[in-house]
Amino acid sequence: MNIRGRKPIIAGNWKLNKLAAEVAPFAAELRSALPAERGCDVVICAPFPLIPAVRESGAALNLGVGAQDVSEHEKGAYTGEVSAAQLFEFGVRYCIVGHSERRSYHGETDFMVNEKAKALLANAITPIICVGESLEQRLRGLTRELVEYQIAAAFSGIPAEAAAACVVAYEPLWAIGTGNTATTGQAQEVCADIRSALARIYDAETAARIRVLYGGSMNAGNACDLLAQPDIDGGLIGGASLKPADFAKIIAATAPAQRDAHE
Ligand code: 13P
Predict the structure, then answer these.
(1) What is the torsional sign of CA 101, 103, 106, 111?
(2) Is 181 in the pocket of ligand 1 (CB under 6 A)?
């Protein structure tokens, strides 16, 4: 728990990487690299077919099992889709929605993100709702308006108690997979804007309970500084989550952030 009373989350987004056979060796390496004590939730968001392997190999490490997408539909004639109830049955307790790669490559709209978040909440799965601006939007000074709109759309119709259980990830598109991490100032500023937007939609107490993560080229070298920011409650990590030693260092970086926050 940090001084704000929010337990940090370090979530790996494996995207379209790894085979099921690689999960047990990953977990063994992660286990030997992990700090003895950890004050954060650790989650792996894996491709669907790898979920049983993550659940099995991650159990001893207390790893949360996550997915990267879900259908907004409960059931029916939706070939290729996977429902929230099906994910829950397989042990999934977290699911990314609205990742920029799904928005860009699969036409996911803000309204779909909202429907998916509701489907997850109805099935006791924590949505990790991704928002973030493109480089052009940032250069035109539209970051705050865009992100506030994405938040308003994603949370529309979700009551305060359910909203408090959601996680938001601020992922500027220009920082994803590029090595161009947002500066701590840029990341903190937008994460604070997100919390203010949530306070306006709900109330300050609800906004103070929602965990806001940063994602975009977070790595073992920059995690400490990012995680020490008052409105950054963890990370959504792509590339560095594929390497157990790097991922373990990011997990360990939540400890000084909490210690500093208490000083
Ligand atoms: P990278 O950490 O590889 O930049 O990816 C971030 C991301 O998209 C996590 O969802």
Answers:
(1) positive
(2) no
CATH no. for residue 192? Answer: 3.20.20.70
* Residue 3 covered by a domain: no
Task: Count up the domains in the chain and report the number.
Answer: 1
The amino acid present at 246, given as its one-letter code, is D
DSSP letter assigned to residue 232: -
User: In whole angstroms, what is the distance from residue 96 CA to residue 113 CA?
Assistant: 10
Confidence grade of residue 18 (pLDDT, cut at 50, 70, 90): very high
Best substitution site from 9, 10, 14, 15 to test ligand 1's pocket, by max atoms within 8 Å of Cβ?
15
Catalytic residue, from 81, 89, 99, 189: name it. Answer: 99
72, 101, 115, 171: the catalytic one is 171
Rounded Cα–Cα distance for residues 102 and 99 (Å): 5
pTM over 0.85: yes
Bridge partners (DSSP) of residue 168 are: 129, 212
Give yes or no for residue 262 having a pLDDT over 50: no
Containing structural domain, residue 144: 9-72+81-262
pLDDT score recorded for residue 118 = 98
Q: In this structure, which residue's CA is closest to atom 7 in ligand 1?
A: 238
**Which two structure tokens, joined as six digits, stand for 50?**
């790898």
Taking CA atoms only, the protein residue closest to ligand 1 atom 2 is 238
Q: How far apart are the first and last CA of the chain?
A: 14
What share of the chain in percent tops pLDDT 90?
91
Residue 35 confidence class, pLDDT cut points 50, 70, 90: confident
